[in-house]
Amino acid sequence: MKKIIAMVCSLFLSFQLIYAQHDVVTRDVNKLPAAAREFVKTQFPNSQISYLKVDKSLFSSTSYDVKLSNGVDLEFDNNGEWIEIDCENLRSIPMSVLPDSIRNYMKKEYPKHRVVKVERKHKGYELTLENDLEVDFDKYGNFLKLSD
Question: How many CB atoms are closer than 10 A to CB 120?
Answer without folding.
Answer: 19
